[in-house]
Each structure stands twice: as structure tokens, then as C-alpha cells.
Specification:
Chains A, B: It comes from Actinorhabdospora filicis. Two copies of one chain form a homodimer. Chain A is about 35% helix and about 25% strand. Chain A is an alpha/beta fold and about 425 residues long. Chain A has three domains: about 1-130 and about 300-330, Rossmann fold, CATH 3.40.50.720; about 135-295, Dihydrodipicolinate Reductase, domain 2 (2-Layer Sandwich); about 340-420, Alpha-Beta Plaits (2-Layer Sandwich). In chain A, strand 11 and strand 12 (about 290-295) form a beta hairpin.
């Protein structure tokens, strides 16, 4: 069974190492040895401390994919092109594919699944979401007899590290980001993480899997964590909550909603104790009830472990002559606009400390048919803090409410607005 | 694709209901409909509110298994015989089997796996451990390219409910047990749960899966929770821990140890916040790192969801003509005796409040080469409480230490001894 490895960075290096170290185990599990046919890299002549002959390295990725002795292509380069071309070429030739390419899957997963089904090959990508956490396989297979209603995940380790540090130390966002950068948990340019782009790509992949429908990253409503303040975290704590960047995919009849935004969740929720760079995905299904999958969300070795798990499954399928189960989408669900999604809001207002403020504010909520769950008013001398937590209402109604609250004469400032989940 | 269902209790009823409700979805996922060929029950004439014709019910389980049109046998009767006979008969005829029978798998899983491999059929049993939590599939498949070093689980909902209530309310064991019985979380005869027999069976299955070797329930060291006291829980809290009934399977070279006993774990450990009747399994693997799987550990619908997931996988394998991957054991690991296992102990002693007690006690630890991590002495007037937490030592050395401590003149009573895990 011969493998073409495309890319040999952090994860690819660990894959090569594991293939070497575990070769006897892998051969026993598959029924024959897994052999590296070649490794495509940009600089094949670079010195590498890897237990493989140097002649395996090549700069010609497409040539390697096209080699007739290659059975499985492992794509770890990332990005849309040329990765998509390599993957579709491989599948058209009847080769199975293992990839960790979340950008490509989030943009064009449906097409890739259709191509895999048409060629009768496997397309596995456990490494694309939450690294080593076995997640896609359970969603695709174990819960097949069930109906998933909602998936709520912490799928970005950088933002979870930052929010965890803010919670532990009371630090502000910038300070926690600097710490994350110093410790290597955040990149020099952290945009993809802190603005929620990375989580949105993973949300699209998770939604597609959970609901067997096409969702792309551009369908995902997205807010990052840059405006989360130390006082938001403190407000959350006051109501027994913590702040997390959540990706939420839920199904309501023939509609799905997919969104990424910071939210308050109760400390008793299993996701609340997922701290630091760890990831977790909480799944609600009609029969199975509440499930959670927890583990390392990044890192060379954990991600390589996911790639190896896929490789074994794909190799066994090929050896047994199994035609891959078609994963092509068959539900045609529509993605609902964020404005129509029902959520709860936690709103903090700096107001004048005078009679009638609460009545005026309550009227604004009533005008927009937003029902209030709790109100707390803390006088601070001249001004007061008014904290309102709403019942569920459409996001559009809540947004309009906040806009109008800001215009009330007694409201000095809308100090913070955050969605509340997991209640 | 025709299914013989053996047993129609709590779980079987939900399986029938899900097969009916989800029939269109299931047919789409498998590529053809799943059809019930018959349902074997003790009393076929009993009135049942199920969406299937009454003539499907039969008292002749073996006759149903033998029917040539049956492709898959779902065994939900439990117990060793006659379930084993039905399962082996089915497999010998080339029929795949889905079961939730943990007693049988814990006693004779190796033989069943060999029989499945010999006949080239699937043997799936996701429902046997931690009900709906997709666990066996990830252990069998997703982590195939990795090496699992340790599995630590909360796999019995009854005991977890009792210990959670003791922690929340300060109640003693008997009081919490009564409450669990009142609420239906514990049986009238709770022995199998509170003495750890149920957890030991699951531990054997988990160990076999994690380490690809034969482990039976009788190989599992077992202590229940009947001697866990309110003061143990309070002592745990004082050192930032909670008490859980853990099943622990670990591998050290060519040896495995499998044990079930109450233990203190730090509140920061992901298993610490698994409360009530929920189950969770924490997995440590060389490459994947730390993973956790969380969900409902019992209940008709969650367990039925696991059965359905297996059914879909098995049906798809049959339809694709896949020969089942052999799960026969290939590692021949030996099970280490509990005395050789290294653990940490938390020991509380009621001692005379006088000079020299600590020195005498410390000498006993030193004599057995058990290293002390922390000591706390709280005077209470005439007597004192001496609490010692050790570093890791063999269980035999720790047990001998405790035996000798009890004989010291100044020691009035060994108030409690509990292992400490997850540090």
C-alpha cells in the first residue's frame, strides 16, 4: 500500500515519524505494510532529520500524485490551489485521499465529496477540525442512526487560550493576546484566529457533517473576540458564566444556522471547563442526548495522529475492496440569516442614576417584543450599571433593541452586548 | 437488508421506534432499506405499542437467527447464555452481529472476536460501554495510528450519581444511595453498580480495545464505593479534589493493569466535572495526547442510538462487500497484579495529639520505601488528624504501610485510605 505525502511541515514530519515508528503495528492492523512512495516538498534538497531516504523527496507534487503505484494521497499543504487540483486528480485516478485542509473543505467540501463518491474512493479529513479529537468519524458513522440537532464547539485553541487567561487573570484582550504570542499560542498576525475566520471554516465543515448538507465558510455568521473586554468577563462571572468563542451549528426543520461568536455559557456547562489551547465539541442529538468530545486542537503530533487514524481506515477499506460509502450531501437545507436566529442577549448599559431609567429601557424591549429574563441595577454614585439578560428573541430584534437603547437620553453608553448560550 | 432483533425491552423498543421513524434517512445512508425480519421476545403475545405488525414477534430466538433471509442479528437480551449461542450461530452462518452485551463481551470477547474474524463478519458493540458515547469506534479506528497508554473512565452512572450527590450535599453513602434509588438511578439491589462489578466488565472491554489484547472481567482489580464516607469527600475537597469511581486501564511495556476503585482526582481534571448519571472516558495516547469522550451512560434512547449507529456501519459494510476488518487480538500482554501497580495514596489517621507521632508515622513510610508528598496535622484537642499524601509507590508497599500504621500505639484509627489519580 503506497502513500504519496504532499507537504512535510510540522504535521507531515510527525506523520513520517509515526509511519516509521509504528510500521509493525500499522502493518498488523492493515494486513500489509504502509510504504511512502514519495514526499512532495518545495525544497527537496533541504537537510531533514527524518528516517527516510533522501531520494523520496521531490518538488513535483503532481508527478507524484500521478505515479501509478500510489494508492493513497495525503495532502498536508493546505490552501485552495494547487491542493484542490492534486486532490481531484488523485480521486479521478481512483486514489483515496486523506487531508487536513480545512480551508479547502470549508470552501468546496461538497464538490470534493461528490468527486470521491463518483470515483468510489475515500476522502477522510479528521485532522481538519479539532486535530486529534476523533470527531468526524463519530459524526459520520456512530451517530448515523440518530438525528443531530445542534453542535456547539470550542474549535480554536488560540482564542480559547486568550479567553481562558482573561478569565484567570482579569487581563484585558491585548494583554492576553501578547502573552499568547509570547508563548507561541498565537501567530504574529493573529487575524485568522482572533477574528474567527479559522473557527468559521471549521464550523462550516462540522455543519456539513452534522446535517448532511452543503455549508461553506461564507455561509457562516462570524464575530471574533477582539471586542471582548475584561468587564464582559467579569459580568459573565457575576451571572455564573464564562465567555467562550463558540461555533454553533443548529438545525430547525429544513433550515440550518451556522455562526461563530463569543458567548456567555454557564460554568456548569461541560464546555465551560475546556480551558487553554484545548478544543471540545458538544453535540446534541435526538436519541443520544448530550455528548462531548475533548482534546488537543492543534500541534504536530496530535494532528499527525488524526492523519494516521484516517490512513489506517482508508488503507483497510482499499485492502478489503470496500467501495467507499458515499458521503455526498443528500439533504438540501437552507442556511438561515443570522437576523432570524433566536438567541439570548446579555446587555450592560451605563445609565444615569435616576428614577425612570429602567422604565424607559423596559419600554424599548417591549416595543421590540423582546422579553426580559433578569435585570440588575447597581448604583455607582452619579451613574448606574443596568444589566439586562433577555429571553430568546430573534437576533434582528435584539440588535434593533440595542440600537434604540443607545439613543435613550439616560443611557450614557452601551457597555457591552453578548449572546448567552447553553442555558 | 434484514435484521433479527433479539430482545425488546427498554433499548429494543427504542431501536424499533428509531428504525421506523428514521427509515427514510437510514435507507438513504445505507443505500437500501433496513427491514425487521422478526423480534424474539419471551412473550410474543404481549400487547406492545410499537409501529410493527404483531406477527413479527416470536418466542423462537434461535429459529429467527437461523432464518436464511436474516443478514444482521441485533442481540439485546444480555447475559452469557443463551446469548452467546445465538451470536456464535449467527456469525458461523455469515451474519453480522450488533450487541450491547457487556457481560458476555467482558467474559468472552476474545473468542467472539476470533469467531467474527474467522467468518468474515462484523461484531459491533458500541452500546456495551458508556451507551451512546461514540467510544469503541474511535478507539478501534480513529486512534489506530497511535499508541494508547492509559484509559481512565467514569463508566457507571449509578455510582457517579451517588458520589456527585455526596459531594454536592455532604450526605453519607447510604443517604445518597437511597436518593438514587428513589429517583430510579439505582436498582433495588444495587450490588452490581456500587460494588463495581458493572464498571469492571466495562473496564475489561475498554482495556481489550485500547491495548488489542485479551482482558476478562476476572482480570480486573475491583473495589466499590460502599466504604466512601462523607469525610473522605471532605478530605478530597480540602486538597482540591473530588472522589470518583474510576476504571483505569494502563499499559506499561508488555504489561497492562486494569482496575476499578474510588479515587481522588483534582477538580481541574476534565473528569472531575462529569457529574450525575453522565459517563466520560479520558484517553491518553502517545501522539494524540489527552482526549475525553462524554455523554449519557445509560437510558433506552441513548443506548438505542448507539445500536443504530452500529447497524448502519454493519449494513454498509455488508452492502459494499467489505470483509470485516479483523479485530482479533494480536498483542499478548499480561495483566499485572494490583500489588505491583504504582499509585498514590491519601491516608487519614486519627492520632493522639502528642509529640513524636509524626516521626513514628514517617518512619513506617520510610521502612516501606514510600515517599511522602505532603503531610497535614490538625490538632482537635486530645487527638489530631494526620493526613498524608504519598508519591507513587507500589500498591503492595502502600497497603503494607497502612497495615503497620494501624498498629502504632499513637494511631487510634486509620480513618480513610484512598488512591489519588490524575495528578
Amino acid at each position: 500500500m503506497k502513500i504519496a505525502l504532499l507537504g512535510c511541515g510540522n504535521v507531515g514530519t510527525e506523520v513520517v515519524r509515526l509511519l516509521h515508528e509504528q510500521s509493525a503495528d500499522l502493518a498488523a492492523r492493515i494486513g500489509e505494510p504502509l510504504e511512502l512512495a514519495g514526499i512532495a516538498v518545495r525544497r527537496p534538497d533541504k537537510a531533514r532529520d527524518l528516517p527516510v531516504p533522501r531520494e523520496l523527496f521531490t518538488a513535483d507534487a503532481l508527478g507524484l500524485v500521478n505515479r501509478p503505484d500510489v494508492d493513497i494521497v495525503v495532502e498536508l499543504v493546505g490552501g485552495i490551489e494547487p491542493a484542490r487540483g492534486w486532490i481531484t486528480t488523485a480521486m479521478a485516478q481512483g486514489k483515496s485521499v486523506v487531508t487536513g485542509n480545512k480551508a479547502l473543505l470549508a470552501e468546496d467540501g461538497g464538490t470534493l465529496h461528490d468527486a470521491a463518491a463518483a470515483s468510489g474512493v475515500d476522502l477522510y479529513y479528521e485532522a481538519a477540525v479539532a486535530a486529534a479529537i476523533p470527531l468526524l468519524r463519530p459524526l459520520r458513522e456512530s451517530l448515523h442512526g440518530d438525528r443531530i440537532t445542534k453542535v456547539t464547539g470550542i474549535v480554536n485553541g488560540t482564542t480559547n487560550f486568550i479567553l481562558s487567561r482573561m478569565t484567570e487573570t482579569g487581563a484585558g484582550f491585548s494583554e492576553a493576546l501578547s502573552e499568547a504570542q509570547d508563548l507561541g499560542y498565537a501567530e504574529a498576525d493573529p487575524t485568522a484566529d482572533i477574528e474567527g475566520f479559522d473557527a468559521a471554516a471549521k464550523a462550516a465543515i462540522l455543519a456539513g457533517l452534522a446535517f448532511h448538507t452543503r455549508v461553506t465558510a461564507s455561509d457562516v455568521y462570524r464575530e471574533g473576540i477582539t471586542s471582548v473586554s475584561a468587564s464582559d468577563i467579569a459580568s459573565a462571572a457575576q451571572m455564573g458564566c464564562v465567555v467562550k468563542l463558540l461555533c454553533i451549528a443548529s438545525r430547525d426543520g429544513d433550515d440550518v444556522t451556522v455562526r461563530v461568536h463569543p458567548a456567555m455559557i454557564p460554568t456548569s456547562h461541560p464546555l465551560a471547563s475546556v480551558n487553554g489551547a484545548y478544543n471540545a465539541v458538544f453535540v446534541e442529538a435526538e436519541a443520544a442526548g448530550r455528548l462531548m468530545f475533548y482534546g488537543a486542537g492543534a500541534g504536530g503530533a496530535p494532528t499527525a495522529s488524526a492523519v494516521l487514524g484516517d490512513l489506517v481506515a482508508v488503507a483497510r477499506n482499499r485492502r478489503s475492496g470496500a467501495r467507499a460509502a458515499s458521503e455526498s450531501t443528500y439533504a438540501d437545507l437552507s442556511v438561515r440569516h443570522m437576523g432570524e436566529v433566536t438567541t439570548r442577549y446579555h446587555i450592560s448599559l451605563d445609565v444615569d442614576d435616576q428614577a425612570g431609567v429602567l422604565a424607559a429601557a423596559a419600554q424599548v424591549f417591549a416595543d421590540h417584543r423582546v422579553s426580559i429574563q433578569t435585570v440588575r441595577q447597581d448604583g455607582r454614585g452619579d451613574d448606574a450599571l443596568l444589566v439586562v439578560v433577555t429571553h430568546k428573541a430573534t437576533d434582528a430584534a435584539l440588535a434593533a433593541t440595542v440600537e434604540e437603547l443607545a439613543k435613550l437620553p439616560a443611557v450614557r453608553q452601551v457597555a457591552s452586548v453578548m449572546r448567552v448560550e447553553g442555558g
